[in-house]
Amino acid sequence: MRKWCQLISGVTLDCQTIQKRIEQALPESKAIVQSNDNVHFEATVYYTGFEGHSRINQHRMVYQALGDDMGRAIHALVLVTKVKKED
Fold it and tell me: 15 exposed, middle or buried (CB, 10 Å; 0-12, 13-18, 19+)?
């Protein structure tokens, strides 16, 4: 499976890269990303900007941050989004 994803997209992403992309696209967010194989990922994203948005729109915001790699280098993403409370 991993070789297939690399052939399609030409890149392999790791947890740290995905975390950085999410946190750069969603300022002041916190992303926790895990994977056992760098193809199937789990992410929990905390972001104040999610407030007032439906769950589906929150997920769309994260997917937009990951761009074309969704469905390519990222074969699957289990995503949990939460409104980050101000410190």
Answer: middle
Segments of the chain assigned E as strands: 30-35, 40-46, 76-82
Per-residue model confidence as pLDDT tens digits over 7-16: 344 567 899 9
pTM of the shown model = 0.82
Token couple for 35? 């994977």
Please give the CATH number for the structural domain made up of 2-82.
3.30.300.90
Q: What angle do CA 55, 26, 65 make, to 5 degrees?
A: 75
Is the Cβ–Cβ distance between 66 and 45 less than 8 Å?
no
Instruction: Measure the CA–CA gap between 66 and 80, rounded to whole angstroms.
Output: 15
Looking at residue 67, the DSSP 8-state letter turns out to be G
